[in-house]
Write a structure and sequence with these properties.
The protein is 60% helix and 0% strand. It is built from six helices and no strands.
Length: 149
């Protein structure tokens, strides 16, 4: 029985979770390449948006009943170790929302350098998540990952 009882069928959510993770990885790898504008912009925004979504998904303290949560899929309480992401999360939220006062007042330039570490942290968290899955969900995740890669 999952740690946190959800108000949705976790099996129906798998395709969406895997979609976001696979998109995160593909775009994250593209952020490590030299891409000209606008492709560098598309890759990074896609990557950072999916990082933000999976950070919310992995957060064991999330209480929004409308969001999917990793704990709805795992045998034990799950949490991800994302220290670089946590350090940059507020900055990234401003960075993604260009038309905010926070974007104008921001004094820390964004270079994209942390993207490599974000990718490493999120792929490690994903591996940990897959290891913690309920036994009946593991093959469903594996099948969906195979279908999307």
């Amino acid at each position: 029985m999952p740690v946190h009882m959800s108000n949705y069928d976790p099996k129906k959510a798998i395709t969406h979770i895997v979609h976001d993770y696979v998109s995160l990885v593909m775009a994250g790898k593209d952020t490590q390449k030299v891409l000209k504008y606008p492709f560098n912009h598309y890759a990074e925004r896609t990557f950072l948006t999916h990082c933000r979504a999976l950070d919310d998904f992995f957060d064991p303290d999330k209480t929004d009943k409308q969001d999917l949560h990793a704990n709805d899929f795992t045998k034990t309480k799950f949490s991800a170790d994302l220290p670089t992401w946590k350090k940059w999360r507020r900055h990234i939220n401003k960075h993604l929302m260009h038309l905010t006062v926070g974007r104008i007042k921001n004094k820390i330039p964004w270079t994209g350098e942390p993207n490599k570490e974000f990718l490493r942290e999120f792929t490690a968290a994903w591996s940990k998540f897959l290891d913690a899955l309920e036994d009946d969900l593991k093959p469903l995740f594996e099948e969906e990952i195979k279908r999307r890669t």
